[in-house]
Amino acid sequence: MPQTILIVDDERRMVSLLQSYLQQEGYHVVTAFNGSEALKAARAEPPDLVVLDIMMPEMNGYEFMREHRAERDTPIIMLTAKVEDEDKIIGLELGADDYVTKPFKPRELMARVRNVLRRAGKNEPKGQSLKVLDISLDRDTREVTVDGRSIDLTPSEFDLLAALMTSPGRVFSRLDLLDVIQGVRYEGYERTIDTHIKNLRAKVEENPRKPGRIETVYGVGYRLRKS
Fold it and tell me: What is the DSSP string of 35-90?
């Protein structure tokens, strides 16, 4: 079955253009023109990925992400005309996996879609399980447990944790980790990684303000504690 992409944008010409490109790539496309419509569409036909505009009437992209993230961990690519880094950071903090700034080339977005779906586990290597400290990660099922407690991670958070668990004790620079989540490398900056790590810590640490598992190496990057 083809993978389902939900496009959410109040610009109907943009929706039509993206729908055409995605259908040519073989995806099944569902459309919505504001966040409220998108929530209904996502509940009726859960998508494999959401391409989401931020500035929309009735319910904007940020509000949609808050609502949708409470129900599902669907990968999300933001479309934004805003150029301020802080606006992108807000989206990443709400769980977006990547972003594209308008105007953009459709081919760039298609590449981002393929990359985010790949990272979501569509072409994940099989038979790989990792266990470090009290964290267990299964690449086959995309399941993660911490001290026996199951946690839900976005594709970017999962990939970052998997990288850290592959080499516990190794210090990964922010550029190293940007390479892990390739979707943002074209516009990558250090705060992108910091935001994803902040979100990851909120899920794997008892007290995110006093990290015990994921350590900051100031001036360099991050590492997962060995023991």
Answer: HHHHHHHHHHS--SEEEEESS-SSS-HHHHHHHHHTT----EEEEE----HHHHHH
94 token code pair: 């709400």
pLDDT at 189 over 80: no
pLDDT in tens, 31-61: 999 999 999 999 999 999 999 999 888 899 9
Q: Check which CATH number belongs to the domain holding 96 and give it.
A: 3.40.50.2300
For 126-166, what is each residue's pLDDT tens digit? 447 889 999 999 988 889 999 999 999 988 899 899 989 98
Rounded (10°) angle between helices 85-93 and 190-204: 20
Closest CA to 69 of 94, 34, 48: 94
Tokens of 156: 């970017």
Compute the distance between CA of residue 29 and CA of residue 94 in angstroms, rounded to an integer.
24
Q: Which residues pair with 28 in a beta bridge?
A: 4
Total domains in the chain come to 2
Residue with tokens 């892990």: 180
Amino acid at 65: M
Task: Return the CATH number at 133.
Answer: 1.10.10.10
Three-state DSSP class for residue 135: strand
**Do residues 117 and 26 share a domain?**
yes
Distances (CA, A) of 116 to 53, 57, 157: 17, 27, 12
